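Researcher: Quick test of sequence recovery. Tokens follow.
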């Protein structure tokens, strides 16, 4: 999803951006669950800005080099939360992508006021400020829309489960054991036969939002 052809400056930019984006995404889940009454994330040390508590080493490397990766999921118990457990779980799930969209919006301010101009090209050893901020906005939007796909274990699945009537949601729970395989098919195999679901579900909405945010 994030493309290929990495050089040193691109790798540095993505490492910095992912460090921030993944950490705050997972922290948002943890803080929201804690606010709703579930002590599980706090007990597991996830109420922290320490990225080592949130990053999955393999998932981060995969995202850097293959465009597909993951962070360490925040474990929560919806039955500890106030209100309807399914609704509370949906709120916790939505907190992650929402945080990434907010980060992208904040990062885009430097482009909106003309301080920098967006660029997707970089060369040399260190990324330019313009490239760094372009990657910051773009990657946060990619993470937000990717996580909204309603396939387990992504946040979109938890949000969908919270919106569906109880009986309908129960029928979908069987998908959880196949979630990772479904993602592999969506990302790697369907594009081989000309069905690029991620283009429509992630790339196009992310690109449209990027243009709206940066004014390009």
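Model:
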């Amino acid at each position: 999803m994030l493309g290929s052809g990495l050089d040193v400056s691109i790798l540095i930019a993505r490492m910095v951006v992912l460090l921030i984006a993944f950490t705050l995404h997972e922290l948002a889940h943890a803080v929201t669950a804690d606010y709703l009454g579930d002590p599980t994330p706090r007990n597991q040390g996830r109420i922290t800005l320490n990225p080592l508590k949130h990053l999955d080493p393999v998932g981060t490397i995969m995202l850097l080099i293959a465009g597909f990766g993951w962070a360490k999921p925040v474990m929560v118990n919806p039955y500890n939360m106030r209100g309807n457990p399914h609704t509370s779980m949906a709120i916790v799930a939505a907190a992650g992508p929402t945080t990434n969209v907010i980060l992208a919006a904040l990062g885009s301010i430097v482009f909106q006021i003309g301080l920098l101009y967006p660029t997707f090209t970089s060369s040399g050893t260190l990324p330019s400020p313009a490239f760094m901020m372009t990657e910051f906005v773009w990657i946060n939007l990619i993470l937000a829309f990717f996580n909204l796909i309603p396939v387990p274990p992504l946040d979109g699945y938890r949000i969908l489960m919270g919106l569906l009537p109880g009986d309908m949601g129960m029928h979908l729970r069987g998908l959880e054991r196949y979630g990772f395989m479904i993602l592999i098919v969506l990302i790697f195999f369907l594009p081989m036969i000309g069905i690029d679901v991620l283009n429509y579900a992630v790339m196009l909405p992310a690109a449209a939002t990027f243009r709206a945010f940066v004014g390009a």
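The longest helix spans residues 8-35.
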